[in-house]
Amino acid sequence: HDTTMKIVFTLLFGVASLTASPTTYHGYKLLSVKPRTHEEAQIVQHIVSSWLLDQWSWAKTPGAGVDVLVPPRLVHRFRNTLGRRHIPVTIKINDVQTLIEQQVTNHKRSHTLPRKFDHTDYHELDEIYSILDGSVADFPALLSVYSAGETYEGRDIRVVKVSTGGSKPVIWIDCGIHACEWISTATCQYFLDQLTAGYGNDSQVTTLLDSYDFHIMPCTNPDGYVYTWTVDRLWRKNRVPNAECHGVDCNRNFDSDFGGAGSSNNPCSDLYSGESAFSERESQAVRGSIEALPDVRMYFSLHSYSQLWMTPYGYTEQLPANYDEQYRVAGVSVRALEAVHGTKYNYGNIADVIYLAAGSSADWVYDSAKVQYSYGIELRDEGDYGYLLPPEQILPTAEETWAGIIAGINAI
Q1: 30, 41, 114, 195 - which has most CB atoms within 10 Å?
Q2: Per-residue pLDDT averaged across 396-401, rounded?
Q3: Rounded CA gap, 148 and 154, in Å?
Q4: Mean pLDDT of the chain
Q5: pTM of the model
């Protein structure tokens, strides 16, 4: 009976997602604003907040760009308002919907689900899970898949364990906790491909897997991810219904200064932290999985975008006890990453490098799970495409990030 109800429940939600009217972004522009003083930055923040605009990136220093998504009805007013104050505004994406349609139209979905890794395109959730199943079938001695939990809409939150056997320290990597950050989920798939294809063939990968087990969660927020394919490409949260709106930002739902700076108690906000810490099944899945592992040596949570390699803390500007060591290892990773394609990353603690953000996984993993090397990584790019990074950039992004991960592991 329970199984039947689960199937019916999943089908109903699948139909609802497919039949919901898709959100379109015709005429929406991604504008880059460059406040040069603290006062100008306050003006920009006031406009963004009072006009209920969607801010894609934040600036920590005067002169750095702030990316803002502006609907067509407000574009002229927004540019004029800032122009009167002589605050520079440039267009990064002229029509957001055009970029979205290019990605969806060019998606090469076949009649049968793929069973092999493909890093030339983004993949829907059923395609990703089919690829994982195919990999387990191809590498049964190396891979196993377990469910870390089930979402509100009844989908499994899968974790792939890569292990040569025995009890070894663990490297944990999760991706896609924010649904719209497709490059994160794609990069996790590349990591799995490298580990499986490389063991026994690549000396670096072989040494890694002889020393560590990897637990990789390629899509931490399956409900939200499906929703980005079927209804709203720029959806961030999960899909739990609230009083007026849907969704919780699962990376504000951890018990690390829950409800503090950089989160919201407004259920309609993209930064809504939820009713209480660990109220969400996605954050519970990460917590439960990590707590069940006896020796997690390093934690990586992949996001996009801004090209940042970050250490705790996000909820305070105070530094963790081993900050110097975390910073050293981050520097090793960033230099190895840059050596691959020349991509430049900044690194340091979350609050200093990007913004105050309470309730994040990286902080909870460090404080509560006692993992001494905990990192949040913001992948490509710096706003030319933002969340809509073209498929052609999947492979170079994944290659350089993998180099950074390997270097970091080897540095501890």
Answers
A1: 30
A2: 98
A3: 13
A4: 93
A5: 0.93
Residue 398 DSSP code: H
**Of 186, 160, 165, 190, residue with least CA distance to 175:** 186
State the helix-helix crossing angle for 222-230 and 2-19, rounded to 10 degrees: 40
**φ, ψ for residue 273, nearest 5 deg:** -90, -5
CA distances for 240 relative to 88, 227, 247, 282, 355, angstroms: 39, 12, 5, 11, 26
Which residues have C-beta within 8 Å of that of residue 128, sequence separation ≥ 6?
185, 189, 218, 219
Collapse the DSSP code of 399 into the 3-class scheme (helix H, G, I; strand E, B; otherwise coil) and give the result.
Answer: helix
H runs (alpha helix) in 212-360: 222-230, 281-291, 323-341, 350-353
Going across the sheet that includes 346-349, the strands are 143-150, 156-162, 213-217, 170-175, 296-304, 373-379, 308-311, 346-349
Give phi and psi for 145, each to the nearest 5.
-120, 135
How many CA atoms does the CB half-sphere of 9 hold within 13 Å?
13
d(CA 160, CA 218): 8
Tokens encoding 219: 């899509």
390: helix, strand or coil? coil
Which segments of 24-71 does DSSP mark as H helices, in order? 38-50
- The alpha-helical segments, DSSP class H, found in 51-124 are 72-84, 96-105
Catalytic position from the list 378, 382, 399, 400: 378
CB 207 within 8 A of CB 168: no
Least confident range of 57-66, 217-226, 249-258: 57-66
Q: What is the pLDDT of residues 125-152, one digit of tens each?
A: 999 999 999 999 999 999 999 999 999 9
DSSP state, residue 99: H
- pLDDT of 174 reads 98
Tokens 């009083």: give the residue: 243
Instruction: Calculate ∠ Cα 154-156-158, nearest 5°.
Output: 165
Is 378 designated active site? yes
Residues paired with residue 373 on neighbouring β-strands, in sequence order = 298
- Please name the residue that has the structure tokens 């009890």: 167
* 3-state SS class at 74: helix
